[in-house]
Design brief:
single chain; 434 residues; BirA Bifunctional Protein, domain 2; five-stranded mixed beta sheet; 38% helix; binds zinc ion
Length: 434
């Protein structure tokens, strides 16, 4: 028999055996966020195309070639102008959109939220790069304070360290602001430099040179990388405010003992970043080594039609965190699925077993039974496979005495327990284990 369907290329099923590790990562992230005062937000998986054209930038790779359109099956074009939808290709713009739409930025001067969400990009699938991957991220919107940049980076460090993905290197840069004597001045210098090397650049970069010259700095083509090695860096062109901001960020990280490397060529792929940008890179992950990335985006909210409001945040790829844990030889956490398994050793015990199963479950005990009428021996093997701490055996003998045989698999002990006391006894034993 041939199986007819497979998961779409570039996507992955997360199977029950892998879930414990995913939960560990998600729970650790949630706990970290709670310690730093961030609350969870969930937004739809699809959004208006315009949201990303406006924020990521129409010339960004994301908007130009990496989005999945969402439209009714059978239509070749969006049904109408206001139904141009795409699957979420990044996490920040949807969160900003939601905060604005619901007026949360008015209710509180500083809003701190986190999300855990699938992200969709139409890319050539390769190791560490999927068409559906998952990100956990935070956004702190409402304050220009450089200490908030420090908090965001510190939370990232805290999270990756507690989840066993340490060993990363933090790359840090500032790409300045929109004031004339800041990024625009740098942009001019960069364009002048790149123009003197125009024939040597890749085709994409020859185009980017005029639309989005900063993006040339993170082109993956070798010939482009060789050229940008000598390109002017933004740090030399910062206005005095941006310079001061960056100094406070660095001092804050130093005070917390967080090591970082200044990387003058770090720009991040999206247009909305201003001032601080950072990437956490895990050296053991090969070509796709960025585990976490983010920065400040002081122009984003205004770009979406809100009052100018500064913000900062990061996104972290959960699949990359898994790879980093693997690279660090972290063992996969395992989980047992049941506390108690009921082995039915006689057909006449069926009724009592049925009732007992639900009494155990209602008492908060994870309980299961055999549904395949297997032999007692086979049931015991199955209980062992499930990792059941206790096996409750119900047979003719037990029934006659109105009792159950309880076998403690961990301590290799076995005893008879009156039927009406089984639930209380087990409840006590199971909580004792916790
Ligand atoms: Zn500036
Ligand atoms: Zn290039």
């Amino acid at each position: 028999m041939a199986v007819k369907f497979k998961a779409p290329r570039g996507t992955k099923d997360i199977l029950p055996d892998d879930i414990a590790e995913w939960r560990l990562i998600e729970e650790t992230f949630r706990q970290c966020c709670a310690r730093y005062g961030y609350r969870e937000i969930r937004t739809p998986v699809f959004e208006d195309l315009g949201l990303f054209e406006r924020t990521a930038g129409e010339t960004s790779d994301i908007v130009q070639k990496q989005m999945f359109a969402v439209m009714p099956y059978g239509s070749r074009h969006p049904v109408s102008e206001d139904e141009r939808w795409v699957l979420r290709p990044e996490g920040t713009a949807p969160v900003a959109r939601a905060l604005l739409e619901h007026g949360l930025l008015h209710q509180s001067p500083l809003v701190k939220v986190f999300y855990i969400a699938p992200i969709f990009r139409y890319e050539r699938p390769q190791a560490g790069r999927l068409r559906q991957h998952h990100q956990c991220g935070i956004e702190a919107i409402g304050s220009p304070s450089p200490l908030l940049d420090v908090e965001v980076i510190a939370l990232g460090v805290d999270f990756l360290t507690s989840v066993g993905a340490d060993g990363f290197v933090i790359n840090l840069n500032s790409i300045g602001c929109m004031k004339d004597d800041c990024r625009p001045r740098y942009r001019q210098a960069l364009i002048a430099f790149l123009q003197s090397h125009e024939p040597e650049l890749c085709e994409d970069c020859r185009r980017r040179l005029h639309t989005n010259p900063l993006r040339v700095l993170d082109c993956k083509e070798e010939k482009c990388q060789a050229i940008v090695k000598d390109a002017p860096v933004s740090l030399d062109y910062l206005c005095s405010e941006c310079k001061g901001h960056f100094e406070v960020v660095r001092e804050g990280l130093d005070k917390l003992g967080i090591a970082y490397e200044i990387n003058g060529r770090l720009v991040r792929g999206l247009d909305y970043y201003t001032r601080t940008v950072f990437e956490f890179v895990h050296p053991k992950l090969g070509a796709q080594s960025t585990v976490l990335g983010g920065g400040r985006y002081d122009g984003l909210i205004a770009e979406l039609g809100g009052e100018p409001t500064p913000g900062v945040g990061f996104g972290c790829g959960i699949e990359r965190v898994l790879l980093a844990r693997q690279a660090n030889s972290q063992t996969k956490p395992t989980e047992t699925t049941v506390d108690a398994f009921i082995a039915v050793a006689s057909p006449i015990a069926e009724d009592a077993a049925f009732k007992l199963l639900y009494d155990l479950r209602h008492a908060g005990i994870r309980a299961d039974r055999d549904y395949l009428s297997r032999s007692l021996k086979a049931q015991m093997r199955y209980a062992d496979k499930l990792g059941a701490r206790f096996v409750l055996i119900l047979g003719d003998e037990e029934l006659k005495e109105n009792s159950v045989t309880i076998r403690d698999m961990q301590r290799s002990q076995q005893w008879r327990e009156p039927l009406d006391r089984v639930v209380a006894t087990l409840a006590a034993l199971v909580t004792e284990r916790l």
